[in-house]
Amino acid sequence: MNSYDVAIIGSGPGGYVAAIRCAQLGMKTAIIEKYATLGGTCLNVGCIPSKALLDSSHHYEDAVKHFEEHGIDIPGDIKVNLKQMIARKQAVVDQTTGGIDFLMKKNKIDVYQGLGAFKDATHITVTGEKTEEIEAKNIIIATGSKPANLPFITLDKERVITSTEALKLKEIPKHLIVIGGGVIGLELGQVYGRLGAEVTVIEYMDRIIPSMDAGLSKELNKVFKKAKFNINVSHKVKSVERKGDEVIVKADNKKGEEVEFKGDYCLVSVGRRPYTDGLNAEAAGVKLTDRGQIEVNEHLQTNVKNIYALGDVVKGAMLAHKASEEGSFVAEIIAGQKPHIDYNLIPGVVYTWPEVASVGKTEEELKDAGVAYKTGQFPMRALGRSRASMDLDGFVKILADKETDEVLGVHMIGARAADMIAEVVVAMEFRASAEDISRMSHAHPTFAEATKEAALAATGDRALHI
Predict the structure, then answer these.
(1) Residues within the annotated binding site for FAD?
(2) Do residues 138 and 334 lie in contact, with contact meaning Cβ atoms separated by under 8 Å?
(3) Could you tell me which of 168, 213, 200 has the C-alpha nearest to residue 410?
(4) pLDDT tops 90 at residue 419
(5) Looking only at Cα atoms, what is the longest distance across the chain?
(6) Do residues 8 and 19 touch, judged by C-beta distance below 8 A?
(7) What are the Pyridine nucleotide-disulphide oxidoreductase dimerisation domain coordinates in residue numbering (predicted)?
(8) Do residues 165 and 269 lie in contact, with contact meaning Cβ atoms separated by under 8 Å?
């Protein structure tokens, strides 16, 4: 039997980062993955493939709608080759997961292919092509999440699908119904909307991206309505039925009236659930919450002292970068170091176009907490860079403490917001004031100038270009 200092169950962004950091810190490390490729949901059927399709569909939309205005004439009809688009997406996935294989070899991490299940608190049975058992002083659970579903919906994975199937469709839907107006549903809805599908979004809450600042939701809603998306908020879905190639969705609107939607595909995108199937956690004495999450303390340690858990399988936002931070964190805790994570400063991003990004407190949260704050906001369309690239939608909003001027939250929607958010995360880690950001030189012309202008506005209506 092989023995290790640390064994990690799951090879997603949390698991593989934990493995690398453990190896860097001198621990003999193993990682266990039930699927044929490493990288978990994010690399295989999540972040990476969805961004590949978003980029491909964005190129197509630009060619159809904007090239002529840019002085680019393409003779003949521009057509979508969906098969090639999906093939390119898969090539990106293969290259990325292959990179994780390389990193495991480089760091001398043993990889076990198969289902990892606890035998007890220090032994794991790996069931794959062969069954074997390993021993570890410390074990990290990083088994991630799976798409959630509503109890009355039957997912046939042909017409009634999850995000996994949406990444490999063989045809462009004529009418895609998306149940859930969150990140995943909107991103994949935009992919197929750009390619010619009619898209209907049905959201239970009173706005899309309901967990983010209300101003972002309002602006993104305008963008989707311009793209002729049919957005239905405050709708409670009560049935989904497939009849041949047609899917019929029935819901109650906010007045309690029944409404019906018909399409040829229905994407069920109602969040994700922690995945512990087959883990046999009870054999190790590990406690789960009522929601199926692994219970952990502030050190991400379970009730069994040598077993840790991280990422989507524990409490908090289900984000790849949150899981990666926790991977490094746990490795350093095991090594006796004193790392920290400020969960308030983990950004959230929606990779639609325009992109949406947010960090810190929303206006709603500050109001609920009774915090006195001030606001500075600047529209993207006032930037020279936005006009040059024809990316005019969106804004940057900075929320700062009314007395101290410390930045409490930043919310942005616009071109490259996913990259722009990093600047304010750094600033907020160092507890910067709005004035600090306003006095930093930002290159011109850039989208990031909107952040400086919003900071100027927050310091006392000092924005220069509006």
Answers:
(1) 51, 116, 143-145, 312, 318-321
(2) yes
(3) 213
(4) yes
(5) 69
(6) yes
(7) 346-455
(8) no
The letter for the amino acid at 461 is: D
Contact 202, 251 (CB under 8 A): yes
Q: Known binding site: residues?
A: 51, 116, 143-145, 180-187, 203, 271, 312, 318-321
Q: How far apart are CA 99 and CA 42, in angstroms?
A: 14
Q: What's the rounded mean pLDDT across residues 33-53? A: 97
pTM score, whole prediction:
0.96
Residues 6+ apart with CB under 8 A from 74: 63, 67
Rounded-to-integer distance, Cα 141 and Cα 308, Å: 6
Radius of gyration of the chain (CA): 24
Cβ atoms of residues 114 and 127 within 8 Å: yes
Cα distance between residue 246 and residue 369, in whole Å:
47
Sorted by where each starts, the structural domains of the chain and their CATH numbers stand as 2-147+273-341 (3.50.50.60), 160-270 (3.50.50.60), 345-458 (3.30.390.30)
**What is the C-alpha separation between 13 and 41, in angstroms, rounded?**
9
Please enumerate, as own/partner, the contacts of 295-300 that have beta carbons within 8 Å and a separation of 24 or more.
299/330, 299/333, 300/326, 300/329, 300/330, 300/333
411 part of the active site: no
* Rounded mean pLDDT, 160-176: 98
Check 59, 66, 70, 444 and give the catalytic one: 444
Of 463 and 229, more confident: 229
Within 13 Å and on the Cβ side, how many CA atoms surround 350? 30
Q: Which are the contacts of 151, defined by CB distance < 8 A and separation ≥ 6? A: none
On the 0-12 / 13-18 / 19+ scale of CB atoms within 10 A, 154 is: exposed
Which percentage of the chain shows pLDDT scores above 70?
100
